[in-house]
Amino acid sequence: MTQGYPLHRRQLLGAGAAIALTTLAGCAGPGTPSARGRVVVVGGGFGGATAAHYLKLWGGDGVEVTLVERQAEFVSCPISNLVLGGFQTMAAITHRYDGLRALGVNVLQAQVLAIDATARSVQLADRRSLAYDRLVLSPGIDFMTDQIGGLQAALERGQVFHAWKAGPQTAGLRRQLEAMPDGGVFAMFIPKSPYRCPPGPYERACVVASYLKAAKPRAKVLVCDANAEITSKKGLFEAAFRQLYAGIIEYRPNAELKELAGGVARTDFDDVKADVLNPIPPQRGGDLARVAGLLNVNARWAGVHWLTLESTAAPGIHVLGDTTFSAPGMPKSGHMANQQAKVAAAAILQLLAGQPVNPAPVVANTCYSFVSPTEAVHVASVHQFDAAEKTFKPVPGAGGVSAAINQIEARQAMGWAQNIWADTLALA
Ligand SMILES: Cc1cc2nc3c(=O)[nH]c(=O)nc-3n(C[C@H](O)[C@H](O)[C@H](O)COP(=O)(O)OP(=O)(O)OC[C@H]3O[C@@H](n4cnc5c(N)ncnc54)[C@H](O)[C@@H]3O)c2cc1C
Question: CA-to-CA distance for 244 and 258, rounded, in angstroms?
Answer without folding.
Answer: 30
